[in-house]
Amino acid sequence: MTNTLFLRWGWLLLSACLFGLLGYTIARTQFSGLIGLYFLLFWGYNLRVRPLLMATPRLDTAPRPDRFLFGSALLFRVLLLGALPALSDDYARFIWDGRLLLNGVNPFRYLPSELMAGGAGPTIPIDANLYALLNSPNYFTVYPPVNQAIFALAAWAFPTNLLGGVVLMRSLIILAEAGTIALMVKLLAHYKKDPNLALLYALNPLVILELTGNVHFEGMMIGFVLLAVWLWVRYPQNGPRRMGLSAGAFALGICTKLIPLMLLPLAVTQLGWRRGLLYSGLVCGLVAVLFIPFFDIEMVQHMLMSIDLYFRKFEFNASLYYLIRAAGYWLYEYNWLSSIGGWLSVLTTGGLLLIAFRRRSQTVPVAIQALWMLTFYFLMATTVHPWYITSLVAATVFTATDTSRPFRYPLLWSALIWVSYAAYQYNPVYEKPALLLVEYVPVLALLIFELKRNPDEADRADARS
Fold it and tell me: Does the keyword Membrane apply (predicted)?
């Protein structure tokens, strides 16, 4: 017992120091230090969560949540509270959008470069230092209403203090993360699983550093989606209340980050066509209501333009797209991004619908379907930043010990995706193909292994017949 306590406290102190070093002292250009400290954190993370993965998958009586480890997860997040994000500069756009709102300007209508030049749009006070930090001054904002409300709150509370605005946004993310973890514990207990499996997400270094440390709102989005699921299972007999509350939470998730939109087809496969379409329609209606304060034709045009540019202009840490691009260079010495980006979006949409509506979909748990849909989307994407994968880690909480088909490959991906930061050693950013192979080959190999090891019930039935 004493030895266990000593190891736990030793792990806690070492991990706290590593999080502190990564949060306060390391720039993203310092790749050697960055990746070394990160892998040390993952070594400690593996020590803590490996017993959960080795335990009996399903329990009649679930153990109590480990308060020490859940408290440690919260502590690591709080330790990062006062740091200015060193690995992402998205926070500057957050504050920029918030200040526009406080000046009565719709952030969806104007490019930062237009406002800075003064040749278009309203005349408002412009912070040149903040503008210099923007990584996309020539692109329209893509952040939905819930995000915009938080940005405005941060800008209102700290009108001239950039760090103050960051700390406020980070505080809200920490609160959301605490709620997300609590919901995971409740849902795991509801499904007769070990509630400590929530530690796969709560202690994951990628989740802590990217969501809390780098101020990304996937944690809040995940929390709203889980709240939607919890409200659905919480009120099994109350149809209208159940439908309205769950759809409202899901709509808030979409209005935080647009990613949950792709999961709406699962409502049909899980609830049936009538209830599924009613639920989806209610979600979309609530999303439209939340967009009303920003709505005009230009806003719609600019958002569609930004999404189109995402597929046609940006490329970073991609997998299947890079293979297509390489084939294009080899055959035609031509960069295909601007030509096939639109087709990639169409192909991705078709693939997502196929995963959701395939014949055997009702035999697959919804968490696994969501995991497959998100995985397919990120494998097809032209840009995969490290924090994108946190949604896969959240899904893995519910799939890692599934009795018939456990899937854990996102945990490996969350460890290896940080090698993508090697590209920031160079100016301009340069990605080495060898490091992309280091990231993707093990992940895809494990994914294929887990798919072959865990065939669907429908597949086994077909084989028997």
Answer: yes
